Amino acid sequence: MKNKLVIYNSLTRKKEAFTTITPGHVGMYVCGPTVYGDPHLGHARPAITFDILFRYLSHLDYKVRYVRNITDVGHLEADSDDGEDKIEKKARLEKLEPMEIVQFYTDRYHEFMERLNNKKPSIEPRASGHIIEQLQIVDKIMDKGYGYESDGSVYFDVVKYNENYKYGELSGRVLEDLLNTTRELEGQSAKRNSADFALWKKATPEHLMRWPSKYSNGFPGWHLECSAMSTKYLGEQFDIHGGGMDLLFPHHDCEIAQSTIANGKSPAKYWMHNNMITINGKKMGKSLGNFITLEEFFTGSHELLERAYSPMTIRFFILQAHYRSTVDFSNEALQAAEKGYQRLMEGLVKMEKAVAGNKSTFDVQEWITKCYNAIDDDLNSPILIAHLFEGVKHINNLLSGKSTLIEADLEIFKSTMKLFSFDILGFVTEEQSTSADNSMLSDVINLLLNLRMEAKANKDWATSDKIRDQLQQLGLIIKDTKDGFEWEMK
Length: 490
Ligand code: ZN
Prior knowledge:
Strand order of the largest sheet: 4-3-9-10
Bound molecules: zinc ion
CATH topology of the largest domain: Rossmann fold
Number of helices: 16
CATH superfamily of the largest domain: HUPs
Number of domains: 3
C-alpha cells in the first residue's frame, strides 16, 4: 500500500507528507519518564500517542526502531540546572538507594504501560547506562568551542550558538527575551549567561549519583542523555522525535542545540508533540490536589473519582481526542469514554455472527478509505473512531438484515474493523466476565422488551406499560421504532 501519511511537524509548524531518511526504515525517539513517582495520566498520553504511531508505521510495513528512554539521573527539581535530583530527593525521603527508586518506578511504569496495552519500545535505554556517551558529547561540544568549564561544571554557550544558529527554533522562544526575563534571577551563578544550560554538573558533597570525568566528579545535565542515546541508537539524523508539549522548551530546544554542534546536523526530521491533559480545566499538579495516578484511576481511589475506570476506558478517553488537542478529564467524560469503548467492543463481538448475503448493499471500500484517510491525517484518532462507530452501525444493519455484504466484502469489512480497533488503536477486550455479564444482561433486556412487544400486539397495555416503566426506572432509555425497539443504558 502506498503511504499517504501526513504528520504535523512542530519544527516547521506545518503538516508534511511523511517520508523516511532510509527507505523502508523509521527511527523514532520518544522522551520517556523520569522514574521517581507513580505513573499518571501525563505518562499515559505520550505513551499511547506514540504507540499508535509505532503500530501504524509497522502496519505500513516500515521497520521501526522505537527508542524510548528512562531518565534515571540528572533531572533536577523544576527542570532547572540547580536544585536536588528528583530521584535522589525521593530516595532521601523514602530512605532508599536512588537505584532502588529507579527500579521500583521503572517496574511500575512498565506494568501500567502494559495494562494500557502499549507495545514495548525496541530499545529502552537508561541515562545512567550512557555516561560515557554523554561525556563524549560534552568533549565534542568543548572541542568545537560551544561549551565552557566553570568550577568543574560544563555549560553550553547559548549566546555563541545563537550567533551562528537559531536557539529556540522549536519552541519559538527568542534568546533576547530569555536573557531579559531571567537576568534578575541570576545570583552567584557559575554561568556566563542565564540562558546557558548545564552539560555536566560537578556534584556537591551530598550528591549521591556521580561519575568521574576530566571536568569533575559529577553527573550529566538532563538534556544531554537524549542527544547521546538518540545518536547512539538511531544515528546522527533520524526520522521522528516525539514527546509531550511540556518538553518543547527547554528540553528539546537544548537537544537540538547539543546535537547540532556535536554532530554538525539537526537531529530529527520530524518533531511531534502531544498536548497536555487538564483535570476539570486545570493543569495537573501535586500542589493542586488533582494529581491522579493510573493506579488510582484503575481502583477509583481518589476523591475526584466517582468510581474506578479501566485501562481501556483511559485509552479510549485519550484517543477520543486528537493528540495535539488538550484533553480535559472529568468523570462525565470518562463515563462517556467507557460507554463508547463498550459499544465498540460489543459491536466487534456481535460482528462475528454476521453472515454473507448474495449482494453488497453498501460500499465497503469507501468506508475503508475513510478509515485510512483519518489515520493518515496526522493520526486523527477521533475521526477514525467515528468511522469505527459507523462500522458498528453497519454490523447492526447486517445482523438485522437491513443490509447485506457478499462473502469477500464481509471478510474485508470484518478484518478492517479488527485491524483498526485492535492492531492500530490497540484496544483489547477487557474483563471477560464483565462483558459476559453485559451480554447476558442485554439478552435479558431484549427478552423483556420482546415480551412487551407481544403484550402490545395483544393490546395488553397494562403489561406493556409496566415493563417499559420499570425498565426506565432502572436507567434504560427505550425507543419504539417502526419495526420494534431500540434501547440503551443511561
Ligand atoms: Zn528527552
